[in-house]
Structure formats: C-alpha cells, structure tokens
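From the pipeline queue, job 12 of 40. The input is one protein chain; the requested action is below.

Action: predict structure.
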Amino acid sequence: MAESTKSVKREREGMAEEEVVVVGAGIAGLATAVALRRVGIKALVLERSDGLRATGAALTLFPNAWRALDALGVAHKLTPLYAARKKSYVTNVATGAVQEIFFSRNNRSSGGPITVHRKALLESLAEELPTHSIRFSSKLISLEAQGQAQQGPYIIRLEDGTVITTKVLIGCDGVHSMVARKLGLGEPVKSGRSAVRGLAVFPEGHEVGDEVQQFVDVGVRAGVVPLNDKEIYWFLTFNSTSKGEAMATDPEQIEEQVIKNFCEDFPPIYAEVVRHSDLSTLTWAPLLMRLPWDLIFGNVSKGNMTVAGDAMHPMTPDLGQGGCSALEDAVVLGRHIGKSYIDNGKLVPSAVAGALEGYVKERRWRAAWLITGSHLSGWAQLGGEGWLMKMFRDVLFYRFLFKKLLQVSDYDCGKLPLLNQPKKTL
C-alpha cells in the first residue's frame, strides 16, 4: 500500500518510474511490448500521437512475419480475415509483356504472402496489452542516460512536463528516432525514390479480381492489391528525379498528381482505383534507408538501451520487409530479454545489457542484408532507359533474381521462452 501511495504521488508530481519503456506504438513498438508481456515483463509504451497510427493503409506480410505473429499469439486473429496470395502479375507498360511471379514456390512452408489492413494489425497487437500500458499524446523532448558510462537508468522528458525514469529503454520511434541518435547511429539517407500509398474503396464492389497486379515503366512501379471485394490497397514508387518529385502533401492534390503525372501510361484500371481512394489514407513520402555499414559497425545497443523496427533498419519497400522485419525484431528482443528475466527472476541491469548485445548480434547482419536487398530490388525494377537495363529487368531480374531475393521471407525468428520452463542451474 505504501509503495502504491508513493507511485501515485510521483504521478501527481509529473514523475513516474518504469522497468521498461518502449518509445513508439507502431508495429515494432506494440509487438515488442506484446513479446515482453508474453515472458512476464510489463512495459510502458509511449506514443506521440493521440491514437494508433495507421499510416500506409495496408501492408503485405510474408511468411517470416506470420511466424513472428504466431510466436506473439496474434496470427490467429488475422488469418481468417484475409487470403494468401499465390502469384503476382507484372506488366511492362512499354511493351505490354506480362510476367507471372509465383510466391508459393519461393517459400517452402507457406502458401504465399497476405496483405492486411495496417490498422487491423495494430489493433490486434494492442488488444494483447493491459489497459493503460500505452500512453498516447506522449511526445519526447529529451532523453538522458545516467549511470556509469551512461549505461542507465534513463530519464525521459515529455512535452507535457512528465518525467519518466526507466531501467530499460527500447526505441521503436521510427525513421527519425531520438533513441537511435542517442546511440550514435547516423541519420537515414535518401534512397533516391519516393512512394505514394492509398486505400481505394468500392462500396458496390470492384472488378479487379483477387490477384496482385504490378505495372512497371522506366523509373516508375505501381501496383494494386485487393484486400477484399470492396477495398484495394494501391501503391506507386518512382525515382525522385522523375515526375512527381515535388508531390503535394494535401491528399486531394496527391490523388490529382498521381492521375495526371503517372496514370497516362498505365492500364485504365489503375487510374480507376486511384480515383476511388479514401483520401484519409493517402500518403506521399521520400523513401529513406539506413546505410548498411552504419548498422553493421554502429552502436545498435548501449547498456540497457536499443532500437527496433524502422528506428534500427529503415529500408525501401521493394521486398515488402519493413513491417515483417519489425515483427522479427520484437520476437528476438523478447526472447533475449525474456531468457535473462526468467533465469534471474527479475530484470538485472548487467544481464539485460548482455541480452541486448545478443539481440543485436542476431539481428545486425540480417537487417543489413534486408536493407541492401530491398535497395537493389528497387534499383532493378525502376531501372534506366537503356536496352541493357530493360533486358536485365525483364529477362533476368523478374525471372530469376527476384525469386532469389524473396527467399529472405522464408525465415523463422524463433519462439519466445516459456515462463514456467526450468531455470538454468549453476
């Protein structure tokens, strides 16, 4: 009772103490909090927005993501709602040539990727967390590391005046991560490409069917992905030096510019999908990435502080691995911290620091390869005007290399430790 009174007093004074703080309630942050809860660790999630953010409308989850969601105990909520994709059609708009890409052949143990509403994924994760474990409208303004060699604990100051101290700090705060900067990681760089994404709604039903369709031209790649019989996720990626570099930020203007600058050479169905966009879902942004060698040689953890998701490895969307790898991060992080917690019966700072080092060792090279593979995939698909580059894309890349690159999704991040498993004896 005395401790409870003390905690209430701290809250009233604008101060709080936590064991673990996760910064950011996106995919990586929520999944990390769920993973920690599965191993018996309570975490406070700080989110700067006033609710769950669903920027991006939808995302495609490959087998590696579904294995992670299964480890988190969430996969069963989503699989009945969406259908797996067996193949994708890629149309070269300049020649009219159409190629088929079979997803199921690229994954030995899965029928193919599944595209889901981003909001549905976030809500499925958030439902696994206790009430009040996500603190919305909590914008960080400063972060201070205390202790020997700044190994922790950590003092977090929020815009509303709240001060939080925590033993463990996990940054899932996106591409422009404050936690990543505190670790000394370099800022993400421009990939030279941009993307527009949106969700089209057809109240009376659409006639696109249920197959993924992509359209490629010099410097441009677009696609439509049916989610159900009334909604279609669509995307457009393009070289930032091509038309649309100065894309507007107003949703109506984004829609207008996409139709005006890009749809002319695409099949009519693409423009029709864009015209049915739910404007609240439209986003445009330059695509950023972390340099792979920054991830390989940089500090991804320090003491009891680390990063996950886009805060660790922002990448281009050309292999569809951004959200998938964030889910992997969460399970691996939960496994390493969870094992330390179970072995010691509590969070021991020195043991947690070792657990974070193990997490980084397991994730560093895979994340660096995903960044590299995604960038190379985008470079090949958006290619140049020369006949050699076109031949490379149409003959070699889509027929052979892309299928090899997609094998990165046939990956298992492992399971979480069981709370009731026997403790390690000395």
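Job complete. The two ends are 36 Å apart (CA to CA).
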